[in-house]
Amino acid sequence: MDGIFETVPVVRIVSPCINICEIDDVSGLCAGCARTIDEIAGWTSGTAEWRDAVIAALPARRDSVGKF
Question: InterPro entries, alphabetically (predicted)?
Answer without folding.
Answer: DUF1289 (IPR010710)
